[in-house]
Amino acid sequence: MALPIIGIVTAAPIRRPRTPAQLAGDRAERAVAGALQLAGWTIIGRNVRAGRGEIDILAIDPGPPRQIVAVEVRWRARRDFGLPEETVDFRKRGRMKSAMAWLLDRGCLTDGTWLPRLSFRIDLVVVEPPERRGGKPRMRHHRYLG
Questions:
Q1: Which three-class secondary structure state does DSSP give residue 90?
Q2: Count: domains in the chain
């Protein structure tokens, strides 16, 4: 005799502890978001899911011209394998363009936050350790696509 199915139980996703590198990347993203806000930018979201992609920081640059900006943040502790800027290739920029197109086509974030109708741009902000102990991290901001 088969037992009746009473209900379906779904398991919560397994949350793995963040690695030291991931934690350093999280700190870099917080530092970049803070620096952008101090510069007058409005942060719309962080770690924004957009279709199959993710945008580290989605913000509005007050301009001129006023634009929605997808910001990719790259943290590197050392330059043994080149500059952090060299890690963003045409494939990564293509995935970011696709994510932005998905968001703009939808007109809002997944949480329902509406996006203003503005042109968009993709930027890269590189964060490296401070030159001296206790100093601020070094940041380089690159504007990529309009």
A1: helix
A2: 1
9 inside domain: no
For 63, the domain range is 20-145
pLDDT of residue 8: 60
Q: How far apart are CA 3 and CA 65, in angstroms?
A: 65
CATH number at residue 119: 3.40.1350.10
> 46: which residues sit within 8 A by CB, 6+ positions away?
29, 33, 56, 57, 58
Helix, strand, or coil (residue 1)? coil
Two structure tokens written together for 15? 């949350």
* 10 domain-assigned: no
Is residue 27 domain-resident?
yes
At residue 70, the 3 state secondary structure works out as: strand
Predicted model pTM: 0.83
Encoded tokens for 61: 């640059």
Model confidence pLDDT, tens digit, residues 73-85 = 999 888 888 888 8
Residue 99's nearest CA partner among 142, 58, 65 is 58
